From TrEMBL:
InterPro entries: CutC-like, CutC-like_dom_sf. Belongs to the CutC family. This is Copper homeostasis protein cutC homolog. PANTHER family: COPPER HOMEOSTASIS PROTEIN CUTC, COPPER HOMEOSTASIS PROTEIN CUTC HOMOLOG. Pfam families: CutC. One of its GO terms (molecular function) is copper ion binding.
């Protein structure tokens, strides 16, 4: 499974017409992705059939949110769910960078039956195994992770462990500088089956169809 992270509408259109399986729609690449605009989402849903997962993140930086920001996340899920979102991507941590069970559980239940991905906030937690087990209990379908390291290549030992222990209960979605030149090596080492990439070549601004084709070919 190949998911393409799209931070603006041009990349989204390229990816939705490509061999990718789905996209993660967000905005503000410099902030690591924020909740996208509803009008752009509605336009893409009307034009394309491929699944669109929507990032729900009201601000950049950390993943601890105050009450106002949490309420913004609630309203965003309600809005995008109403307009046909195929999945949601979010992750809430507490003040100690651990999984906020109560708030994540609330949002997963609110999104139901639409599947949810816990984003790379996961990589900030102290114990990846314990965090993974918690997310399984909450009901997440996917975890986007680089194995607790800056890149998937650096975290491939942890990714391999997580896949071996938990892939029958939750999808380990491998992300973090995943590119066509390294995805085959990462796949072979980790035995991973789910990959996430922006598919933006160096010195370019938008997702590239040829890069997506290579990613798809080397990751299956």
């Amino acid at each position: 499974m190949l998911e393409i992270a799209c931070f603006e509408i041009t990349s989204a259109e390229i990816a939705l017409q490509s061999s990718a399986d789905r996209i993660e729609l967000c905005k503000e690449i410099t902030l690591g992705g924020l909740t996208p605009e509803i009008e752009e989402f509605k336009y893409l849903k009307q034009k394309f059939l491929k699944p669109i997962y929507v990032m729900i993140r009201p601000k950049g930086g950390g993943f601890f949110y105050d009450l106002e920001e949490f309420n913004m996340m609630i309203k965003s899920i309600e809005l995008f769910k109403n307009w046909g979102a195929d999945g949601f991507v979010f992750g809430i941590l507490d003040e100690n960078n651990e999984i906020d069970v109560e708030r994540n559980s609330f949002l997963v239940e609110l999104a139901n039956p639409i599947p949810c991905t816990f984003q790379r906030a996961f990589d900030r937690t102290k114990n990846l195994e314990k965090s993974c087990e918690t997310l399984i209990e909450i009901g997440f379908e996917n975890i986007l992770t680089s194995g607790g390291e800056k890149t998937a290549k650096e975290g491939q030992e942890n990714l391999k462990m997580l896949i071996e222990k938990y892939s029958d209960k939750i999808n380990i979605l491998i992300g973090g500088n995943v590119r066509s030149e390294n995805v085959e090596e990462i796949k072979t080492f980790t035995n991973g089956r789910h990959f996430h990439s922006s598919a933006i070549p160096i010195y370019e601004q938008f997702a590239n169809d040829e890069e997506i084709r290579k990613l798809k070919r080397f990751s299956v």
